[in-house]
Amino acid sequence: xxxxxxxxxxxxxxxxxxxxxxxxxxxxxxxxxxxxxxxxxxxxxxxxxxxxxxxxxxxxxxxxxxxxxxxxxxxxxxxxxxxxxxxxxxxxxxxxxxxxxxxxxxxxxxxxxxxxxxxxxxxxxxxxxxxxxxxxxxxxxxxxxxx
Length: 147
Hints:
Layout: H1 9-12, E1 14-15, H2 26-36, E2 40-45, E3 48-54, H3 55-64, H4 68-73, H5 76-79, E4 86-88, H6 93-102, E5 107-112, E6 115-121, H7 122-133, H8 137-143
Parallel strand pairs: 4-5
Antiparallel strand pairs: 1-6, 2-3, 5-6
Helix pairs in contact: 7-8
């Protein structure tokens, strides 16, 4: 195991996160995120990562539509992010967290050859920091599980 300062994002990411197709209805994503208590949902088309949708994206889209029926008809591709932050699993945790903080980014998607492997969120970073402050950094790295 690498020293704590040399951890890579692959050591602490959530493996195989839930994802959604771009042609899926927005309300399906909203329900899935609510049921699973998550705020970021990768958008995947034919196994290729194309975007991410957040609870904030959904809330803004629903608020912008005065007609509730129209909001129910919106598709993920209509409101998902145009750009996303993605890195290889070998990227250092310190670089990823620094970039997230400097650019107010809530999640990073971890890919290999364009395919989604994992996700790391600001909430995950807070969980990891909390464990490190308690002297348990090596526990999280060896378990590769933030929960």
